[in-house]
Amino acid sequence: MCLFRTGRPPASGLFSAPMSYSCRYRCVGTEETFPVDQVIYRSPTTGELLEVEHDLAALKDRSPASWIKLFDERKGSNKWPYASGVWGKKEWVMPGIDDNNIVSLHEGHTNLFWAERYGASLGLDDLWIKLCGNSHTGSFKDLGMTVLVSVVKQMISQGTPIQAIVCASTGDTSAALAAYCAAAGIRAVVLLPAGKVTTAQLVQPLANNALVCALDTDFDGCMAIVKRLAEEDGIYLANSMNSLRLEGQKTVGIEVVQQFDWQVPDWVIIPGGNLGNVSALGAGFDMLEALGLITRRPRICVAQAQAANPLYLAYQKGWHTFEPITAQPTEASAIRIGNPVSFQRAVRTLEKYEGVVEQASEKELSEAAAAADRTGTFACPHTGVALACLSKLIGSKQIKPGDRVVVVSTASGLKFTDFKIRYHEQRLRDIDSDLPNQPKSLPNDYEAVKRAVLNSI
Ligand SMILES: *Cc1c(COP(=O)(O)O)cnc(C)c1O
Description:
Bound molecules: pyridoxal-5'-phosphate
CATH architecture of the domain at 112-136 and 246-410: 3-Layer(aba) Sandwich
CATH class of the domain at 112-136 and 246-410: Alpha Beta
Number of helices: 17
Shape: globular
Largest sheet: 6 strands, mixed
Number of strands: 13
Order of helices and strands: EEEHHHEHEHEHEHEHEHHEHEHHEHHEHH
Distance between the termini: 46 Å
Strand order of the largest sheet: 4-5-13-10-11-12
């Protein structure tokens, strides 16, 4: 049996659910609502970003136990589209979508593993890493992109004249957009800051035949241009201003709880740049609570690179002022953002989840990634930021030795091999690596190899 698509199932099958469920866009300020298949990103009245609101009353037709049973059954299923970690929660994500319009590359269901030795090195027994980078394009962005591109496919099938989907990106959003658009047969256009994404991130959208525009600016500059581009007819915007993506990304929190047999961890640490993902994380927990599957909340820490820390600075000032900054170069290039579009959303989430914000310097993030790698990870620099912030929260005693902590690893380290090579070759800018490891060049000679091995043990 094929693990992916086994042909489209009949409308009613083992996993079919009543389709009275629905969701819509809602303006937080004015309560106005709009259909999710309308081309709209902000409230026409307040200019605020729109939220996706689900009909929770309808979803309450199932008991918490019955949702748990349904989601657990789908976890091992091969039935289209439920094998995907996102579409296995379809009723909570985007219930109105026709299964024929779903564009899925089997995203989600990423591993959550016990980081036993790294946790022990920090005095923590119960540290877990959620490896969201183990995904089709190597980052959590796939979770949101499957939802957005599926909705666009449905809109096109209904006659909405969309010719292309565009995004500005620090590298991972464009890789995901290009892949899902290629799978759907929709034109993708990506705006990247020239020279500020990794080789892997650049070649991904090129390979998927997106129009790749490398602009002589930073991410915030690309974002300013893409917002204007999205005003043109036929162009649809895929940045996280578009809250459809957050509906898919929301499944990370739900999946973590599911992987703990529906228990809630004490802390979740998540790297943040544009801050859509932390808002999505909170939205997943919100839904679990609203529908009675959990009764307590985790605390959330957003981890920022010191070079791109506008949320950290605002947090230090008690949220009273928010000043966009010009983000400085950081190895954590996917979070090099000075003017996050989801700032307000993130503050709402952090207030609800007793949130904190920490930051990590280039030295701290590099050493944390390297130290964790020596216990079996292959951490991307953003995960390094989260791991460094974890150490700080343990140091400040906010995280206690007995706490269950989940670090969200946002991308595959394999997209950031250049960072790791430079670390181990002592070539990171202004950083003296503490734990470098180099290949040993040896002659083709048994005794020389034997000596090297015996000397190392
Ligand atoms: C996009 C991204 C982030 C940041 O997510 P936001 O929603 O922008 O806060 C973090 N890490 C990686 C690897 C990313 O691609």
